[in-house]
Design a protein that fits this description.
Elements (H helix, E strand, L loop, with lengths): L2 H8 L6 E8 L2 H10 L6 E8 L17 E8 L12 H15 L4 E4 L3 E4 L2 E13 L2 E12 L18 H5 L6 H17 L4 H9 L7 E5 L6 E8 L5 E4 L5 E4 L5 E4 L2
Parallel strand pairs: 1-2
Antiparallel strand pairs: 2-3, 3-7, 4-5, 5-6, 6-7, 8-9, 8-12, 9-10, 10-11
Helix pairs in contact: 1-5, 3-5, 3-6
The structure holds biotinyl-5-AMP (BT5).
C-alpha cells in the first residue's frame, strides 16, 4: 500500500478527502483531530501500521505493518441522517460483511461491532463522536480488518478467537486496496439506505448467534443470558430470556459470548 496505489483506488470513489500515514498511533485520533478542524464528510485517514490502535474502552487493536487494513472515516451527518445515527455501526458492519461475501467467504456480524469468519473475529469497528454542545458534529468510524494471516494477534492476547481473510480463503488474499474499495463503496451505498427497513433486515440476516443462547457481558458481575432474536429499529439487540420475556440490549460496551 502506498500513496500511488491508494490514489488509484480512491479516485473511483466519491469521498471527501484522504490522508495516508504509513505508521501512526491510531487512525481514529488523526481523524478526530481532522474532524474537529473541519474535515469534509467522508474524509478518510488510512495507515499501513498502527502502533497504538485501540478498540472499545481503550482495549488494544493489533495492526502490524504490510498486512491489515486500518482506517477511519469521518461522517458529517445531514439533518436527514441524524435520526438514524445509531444505525451507523450496522452500515459499517454490513459494508465489511459484503466485502467478505464478494470474496466467497461467509461473514457474520457479532453485534455490535465485530465481523466473524468461521466464528472468529476478522474485523472490528470503533465509532467515536465529536460533539458540538449537545449535537453530534461528526462521527469517526474506525475499521480494522485482518487481511493477511500475520495480522492476527497471538492467541494469548485474545479473549475471543481471531482469524484473517487469508486464513479463511486458504490462499493469497486480494490486495488491501481492493478490499478497501469494496468496503468504502458498500459504506456509501448502505448509508444512502440507512433509513430503510432493508438495512435492518440485511443486518439481522447477518447476525451471529441468531436463535442461539448467548451471554451478554457488560462488565457487571451479573451477566444476562438470552436467545438472540433480532434487532430493534434503532439497531439495538433483541433477546428472549429463559422465561420467554423479550429484552433489549442497547449499545454500550457489550460483548456477546456463546453460553457454555
Ligand atoms: C474493536 O474493539 O473491535 C474495535 C477495533 C477497531 C480498530 C480500528 S483500526 C482503525 C481505527 N483506529 C483505531 O485505533 N481503532 C480503529 P473491541 O470490541 O473492544 O475489541 C478489542 C479486542 O479485540 C482486544 O481486546 C483484543 O482481545 C482483540 N483484538 C485486538 N486486535 C485484534 C485483531 N487484529 N484481530 C482480532 N482481534 C483483535
Amino acid at each position: 500500500m502506498n500513496e500511488t496505489s491508494l490514489k488509484k483506488t480512491l479516485s473511483k470513489l466519491n469521498i471527501g478527502g484522504w490522508r495516508y500515514i504509513p505508521s501512526i498511533g491510531s487512525t481514529n485520533d488523526e481523524a478526530l483531530a481532522w474532524a474537529a478542524s473541519g474535515a469534509k464528510d467522508l474524509s478518510l485517514v488510512i495507515a499501513d501500521e498502527q502502533t497504538q490502535g485501540r478498540g472499545r474502552l481503550g482495549r488494544t487493536w493489533f495492526t502490524p505493518k504490510d498486512s491489515a487494513l486500518a482506517f477511519s472515516l469521518i461522517l458529517r451527518p445531514t439533518e436527514s441522517l441524524r435520526p438514524h445515527l445509531s444505525r451507523t455501526v450496522g452500515v459499517a458492519a454490513l459494508s465489511i460483511a459484503d466485502a467478505c461475501l464478494k470474496q466467497g467467504l461467509a461473514p457474520q456480524i457479532k453485534w455490535p461491532n465485530d465481523i466473524l469468519l468461521n466464528g472468529k473475529k476478522t474485523a472490528g469497528i470503533l465509532i467515536e463522536t465529536v460533539w458540538s454542545g449537545e449535537d453530534v458534529d461528526s462521527l469517526v468510524i474506525g475499521i480494522g480488518v485482518n487481511v493477511r494471516a500475520v495480522s492476527v494477534p497471538p492467541a494469548e492476547m485474545l479473549k475471543f478467537p481471531a482469524t484473517s481473510i487469508e486464513d479463511e480463503l486458504g490462499k493469497e488474499p486480494p490486495a488491501r486496496e481492493e478490499i478497501l474499495h469494496d468496503i468504502l463503496s458498500g459504506f456509501i451505498a448502505w448509508r444512502e439506505r440507512v433509513a430503510s427497513d432493508d438495512l435492518i433486515h440485511a443486518w439481522e440476516q447477518s447476525l451471529a448467534f441468531r436463535g442461539e443462547l448467548v451471554q451478554v457481558q457488560d462488565g457487571s458481575a451479573l451477566n444476562r443470558g438470552g436467545i438472540v432474536q433480532g434487532l430493534e429499529s434503532d439497531g439495538s439487540l433483541r433477546l428472549e430470556d429463559e422465561d420467554g420475556k423479550s429484552m433489549t440490549v442497547r449499545f454500550g460496551d457489550v460483548s456477546l459470548r456463546p453460553a457454555a
